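Data availability (excerpt). The following record was deposited with the supplementary files.
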Amino acid sequence: MKLTPLCGVALLLLAFAAIGCRPVEPIAEDSPVVSVEEPTGAGEAPAPEGAVPSEPEPAESAPGVSAVSPAPAAGEGADTGVALGAGESAEPAPPPESAAAVPPPGGEGLSDACREMLSELRSLRKAIPLVFTDAGRPTSEIAKDVLRSMELGERFLKECGEGDDVPWVKASLGRDLLVRLDVFLSERRTHWSQVVSQQFADQQIAPAQKRRMIEEEVAAMLAEDMKLYRERIAKLGEEALAASADGSEARRMALELLADAAYRSGDPQRQMALAQRVLAEFPESPNASKYLIDIGQAYLHLGRYRECVDHMKRVAEQRSNDADYVLFNGVLFDGLYGIGDLEGMEALMRKIGEEYPERMKSIEGRVMRGQYEQWYDLREFWIGYARFALGDIAGAQKALDSCRTYLEEKKARLVREGSDLPKVQEIYLEFRVKDILTFLETYQGQLPRVDFDEGVRWATGNKLTLAEARGKVTGVVFRNPGNAVAASFLQEMDSLARENDSVAAITLGFFPSRIEEGQAQQRLEAMRKDLETLRVAAAGGFDASPGQSIFRSLHGTVGTASFILFDREGRFAWYVMDPRERDRRMLERVVLRLAK
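Predicted structure:
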């Protein structure tokens, strides 16, 4: 298993306010949130609807550190990291005394019953924390609070008229619905899967076809359910905003709800506009840091990396004393990676090495402290990564060796103490640090032992071997047709080859160990069509050797995309695991450096 670069390490693990700190990249409703194989960062999509993580998982980020999908906040708007109410009683858990003791504002002109509902609603709102993992209360209790809050909100709107408190109640109910969106999706998926499977039970259809038909029907039902659910959230937010007074708590909550709903819908442009509006109207919002980060994340989603860097640099400087400083730097790192600023990446990692030990002394929350530790633990990896891309092989090996030693010693110490190395650090140690060190020690600067004259079935009329490409900087993208993640990276490599006579591009897929000729022809045709659609002119073919020996001999990854760059002398010069959109500027820098 190989990992792609991790987005701002810090960014992922965090269960930040209202859906905050999210990974970026293709914003698609069903695009997976980074796999465990990749840390989070620029360019990752929101967690797939229906996924209700209990712990953050590494997600990819603008190749920053293997980030993780945030463990969402439950109060002011993120997904709860627990199944809110799935199979649980909706009986309310008694709110903390401090919350219940605060006399709730409003309630004028309401009946005693409505005033009591409003009082309990306000207490619940205070009792539902932003970050479940550091709440100091069982998540099952918080889940019940959310369900009770939803129940009271619905009753209040139905029974208590159109008074001054209605905008606040609508914004609160919309927040609860958004918090529970993934659970709702999971419940509806289970429901429709059962219903549709029953409908097809007696039909005489081939199993594979039946499965496909059931999946399509369930997807259609879910899409309609989610459309209505999202529309309800948006309507509550818009109505609360329209009826709320300037500067009121209800107005702030409505704007924040709409901003977070825009994120969950995959609309970074609207998300950014609403986040900016929140900050313009409520600069002292308790969630201000979250919306500053959201703006940076939106820039990443939109591929506007330079603007992300400029924005997050200002934020980090102006709010350097915030506990969220680690998150600011996480998004900043993703932006730096996106523009290929290797020197800036390295400088930020060295700054983290100097500052974070002291900063961590004042961080109390487990999740946030984990973010600081994660960045600090992986700083040498990113220094080595930058050195490698800059061509400083000795410097890269030194930094990566230091990272490996540090993580292995920390792991041994934690095991002695009865615990484990955190998941992201473990993944980086085993699948990133050691992997790149293996490349540097075994392949870097060596001539390849295999070529493409034998064992390759070419799909394109133009064929190219490594021997024929000698004298040019040659990039080989190991990618099967249809792989959307690495498509733009391949296009970038192809573009560099078209624009520079001293650069060549090749793309290789692979055949499974056993394949019939008819299937082989289908795959060859699929590659031709794929390259035509992408407007890529590079030579393309398949490794048809037994056991994908060409891939493996060149350190290519079987099962996910990877990339090898050869210098003008035909020697191994650079390696990228799981190349993506965010890697394009990095690719450009390295290719042009070698082509000089």
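Summary of structural features: The longest helix spans residues 207-243.
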